[in-house]
Amino acid sequence: MALIEARSLGKSFGAQRAVDDLSFAVHPGSVTGFLGPNGSGKSTTMRLMLGLDRGDGVTTFDGVTFAELDHPMRHVGTLLEAKPFHPTRTARNHLLMLAAPSGIGARRVDEVIEMVGLTGVARGKPGKFSLGMGQRLGIAAALLGDPHTLILDEPSNGLDPQGITWLRNLLKFLASQGRSVFVSSHLLQEMAVLADELVVIGRGRMLANGPVQEFLSHSGLGAVTVRTPDAGLLGPALEALGASVGHDGDALVVRGATAEQIGDAAHAAGARIHQLTTRQATLEEAFLEATGMSEEFRGTQGGEQP
User: pLDDT tens, 233-252?
Assistant: First the structure.
């Protein structure tokens, strides 16, 4: 199974730097989520990885670039656009055409059609498909070569809730087989339960890269609520550790310290604790915090003036 290594990727459009010195790895056996606001450079990055755009840097799949792969469909499955198909060719014939140059037979075509739930419309024309059905056909094309690596740009776009659940289970299953899965999405709640690792960018630059839980724990929006009759003792002790201490009724709201650190500080200060509750930031909260100054397009709320 292939390790994806992207090194110093970069791309400019005129004076605008769309992708700026991005380096990251996607490990076999994991789903890596690719997040960023609209216009942050996600699609351009994926095109650079596959050599579809000219720019700086290099991406390798176990040390080999995409252009150097023999029968790349058998190594890397891609979905960058949902509907690149001939409008009068049937869905099955579309996949047969894609499969032929790599020596992939009709049996595999029928397997992936069944895998994505399009058996009933296999002889239908994709030009009449809904967005979700077109997306499933694109996913089928990415799976044709039984690749060890998947690079998918917004694969859940147009899928209904059942389709999103199906896709999540499919990608988790493929990763559990040791494949490398790199997937972008704007559905942050879905990414929170799908991804093992994250690459987060804004205005083409790296903002965060690592395990999902690490990204959440580093957010300043997480807090520990402490109920104690000895707030006068515990508050100053926690502030001495560098934590920020606020109040919510009769409870302390502590940021910048773990529950374990708070317990140790309470013990050292002789303060009693009646309750400790840890609240971790959601992925949406952590993402908005990390990318708040990196939005390409910023609107106003209600009647607010810019």
Answer: 999 999 999 999 999 888 99
